[in-house]
Write a structure and sequence with these properties.
The chain is an alpha+beta fold and 153 residues long. It is built from one helix and eight strands, in the order E-H-E-E-E-E-E-E-E. A four-stranded mixed beta sheet has the order 1-6-5-4, with no helix packed on it. A four-stranded antiparallel beta sheet has the order 2-3-8-7, with no helix packed on it. Strand 4 and strand 5 form a beta hairpin. The radius of gyration is 22 Å and the shape is elongated. This is Small heat shock protein IbpA.
Length: 153
């Protein structure tokens, strides 16, 4: 199941409020019906701003090897897929709790325009993606100076 995680480099407070409300309602109905919430992502992530143009996305992918992950960018949409190569059958194991994700996953982030992926690296179960956000000069806000032209007779 693909999880879409929209975020903007210019966040809007109301988007976050509605998103959180949807998640809360989704969890409430899931508790009542016993089904899994549709908005829950197995992969947790952090997004931090390094400076005005650079960001770092870190996604938790415990147990995945480099060759089991793909990262792609198309039309401003970042797609991260994990597909386990070796799925071990553990028939004689009695699990008390199994909270570490084991299956295939797809996570999608809608990044918008003007995004470039600098690099992706995997270390200690964390996939780190360096993102550059470069707004073209013609789309940047331009300040216009105001001149005082007192008209006196």
């Amino acid at each position: 199941m693909a999880n879409i995680k929209p975020f903007s480099f210019f966040p809007v407070i109301s988007d976050n409020l509605f998103s959180n409300r949807f998640d809360q309602i989704d969890r409430l109905f899931s508790q009542l019906t016993g089904s899994k919430p549709i908005s829950t992502s197995v992969q947790t992530y952090n997004l931090r701003q390094i400076d005005e143009n650079y960001y770092e996305l870190t996604v938790s992918v415990p147990g995945y090897l480099e060759n089991e992950l793909t990262v792609s960018l198309k039309s401003g949409c970042l797609l991260i897929k994990g597909k386990k190569e070796n799925k071990k059958q553990e028939d004689n194991v009695k699990w008390i709790h199994r909270g570490i994700p084991q299956g295939d996953f797809t996570v999608q982030f809608d990044l918008g325009k003007h995004i470039k992926i600098e690099k992706a690296s995997l270390s200690s179960g964390l996939l780190t993606i360096k993102i550059e956000y470069k707004l073209p000069e013609e789309e940047k806000i331009k300040l216009i100076s105001i001149k005082n032209e007192d008209i006196t007779n």
